[in-house]
Amino acid sequence: MELKEYHYVYYSYEEYGRGYIGSRSCRCLPEEDVKYFGSFSDKNFKPTQKIILKNDYATREEAYADEITLQTHYNVVENPHFANKSNQTSTKFWYKVSKEEANKGNETRKKLGLGIYGLTEEQVNQRCKKSLETRKKLGLGIFGFTPEQQHENSKNAGKYGGKKAKELGVGIHGLTPEQRSEIGKKSGYKAKELGVGIHGLTPEQRTENGKKGGNIAGKKAKELSIGIFTLTKEQLSENGKKSAKTNEKNKTAIYALTPEQRRESVKKTNSQKWMCLETGYITTSGGLSSYQKARSIDTSKRVRVS
Prior knowledge:
- The chain is mostly helical.
- It has 3 domains: about 140 residues, no CATH class; about 45 residues, no CATH class; about 35 residues.
- It has 9 helices and 8 strands.
- It has a 3-stranded antiparallel β-sheet with strand order 2-1-3. A 3-stranded antiparallel β-sheet has the order 7-6-8.
- Helix 1 packs across helix 2.
- The longest helix is centred in the middle third of the chain and has 22 residues.
- The protein is elongated and about 80 Å long.
- The model has no long low-confidence stretch (mean pLDDT about 80).
């Protein structure tokens, strides 16, 4: 009995690196075809993961059609992110396609809802989820690494990827400061609308996370003697004076307040009482800082009591 032949379109990629778009025919379920990552010729490309984008084609020609759509849409031949050295056609490889032809073909398929454009967002997400579950079950790709290895790979890839992107002027490095600012605003609005990221936290949770992050960063900086910890007391004092003069000149920070507002702010601060979590001593915020520093107590070990 002859096994059924399956046809699918996939995206294989390096962990935190480049990717490859292709199509494939196999006599096993596509999600079980885990050892195949593409027919690329770039020896420097070493993919470890693969996502099945679509796998219900009746013929290989249909899979080719979607492969062409994706490759031309992302201009894989010229895009440095991709390891593809050529674009696929239904019968052969070719090395360049005009943008006009690529856009026309994409618009037609998108308009008619053909190939990958016939999938809903939920279907695409479901396929990606299924592929990840299979790889997790088999311990492939990122799932074959320990947490420590994943962390180390992430650091190395971030350094390499950032330098390469800056060198090529791609990604965020290909944008003007104005464009970056606009994208940041839109991202912030969307996150707030969906209640994700920092917008999914309560004010108390944000404060707690801020304290933890500040404490960890401060300890690490002190340990490595970087940032403010490379300065002498005289330099710190001088920087403080310069900052005060700048704020006074620009009417920022406390200088943006009226005398009445300043008095009210000081009064409010002094009315707050804080307790040392090690000794139970209660006083004002500033007084407790002096108290804890004099006794070599971590100044973060405090809680507001009034």
